[in-house]
Amino acid sequence: MKKFTFILLSILTIGCANEVDIDGYWQGHFTFPKERVPALIKFENGKFIDFFGVYNDTVEYKRNDDKILFGNATTRSGVFKIKVNKNELTTFKNETDSIFVSLKKKQAERFIFDYLNDKNLKLELPDGHGIKRNIGPKYFRNPLYLSYIDSNLVANFLDTTVHVNSKYHILLRKLSDYSNHYENSLHINKVTLIIDKNLKMSDVNLISNQLRLAGYLKVYYYLKSDSYEKINFLSTKLRPISEIDYHKYNSEENQLSPPPPSFLLDYFKGEILRLYIDKNKVTLNDTIININKLNEFMKLKLLPNKELGVFYQISESSTYQDFIRFNDVIYNAYYDIRNVYLLQKYNISYRDNFDYDKDEIIESKKTFPMFLKQIDSIEYEKVKKFQKL
């Protein structure tokens, strides 16, 4: 990403004769032969921030006629030359005067909707209290939008919008080939799921399975956020593919990682909670529990019993919002209890540091390990029988 910020801040050919007001957000993308990189910059009261730069640092700037000078009087770091035409900001390559990148003024309430290239795909994000961060390259990886158009389930991934079916994983693999060079360097393929909260879980399970078959391992579930550049998300790993899917889809052309050798119960030694979610109704070990009380129940369970397995099945008639609401309750029980642990012991906030490999953060995860697994109906019955042993 350094090269993009460097180019953006390099000396660019001039384009405007008067000082059009440029304060606000400008969004778009850089397009290169083998990748498409989001771009979001902000000008505000003499300050500039590139959200997809390396550090998301705020830089001072001054407008001098038709030039933007970055840095203060003693530490000038570059000149940004632009052309502004109504709601479009264009930059040019210095050597050829050709257009380098065009950015548009903020139009939607959130950047993720401005970035969506197919404006026919409408969706509403689910409500929840996840982890909040500035949007940037770390948390906006391979966005996949999922909603309905004319009663058909449709996904937009890497600028390609198609109907989703049981063969969608083939297209996912083809589309992601050019972006996997960066992902493979991190040893994990990530995807950002931006899903309409009213979709049924049958649709969400379909896309999750297609992502697993395409080799994606980690997911960011995007929730509704309270500002344009802020994101609110839950981060999790997709469960491995099933043995049935492995034998069905594995081939020389489509090589899949094999599933675990046996069901998770074979080696889990802690207490097990079995939950069934059907819309707003939550059943815990055959007893109905108010979802608003589930968070406190989880905390009480975690304190004396640090190894706790939470296995849950959610009905396919439930909505994506129901799915997020349940996961949000469980995740926040862990976030809260790890936060208290770290604040008391090290005066460190878990929420502010959860994505850093600090020794203290690792310690809190080991002290209160999360073992949360979505299971199907067959596995649900296995867990039920195991509890009775």
TrEMBL record:
State what protein this is by name: Lipoprotein
The organism named in the record is: Aureibaculum algae
Lineage, top ranks? Bacteria, Pseudomonadati, Bacteroidota, Flavobacteriia, Flavobacteriales
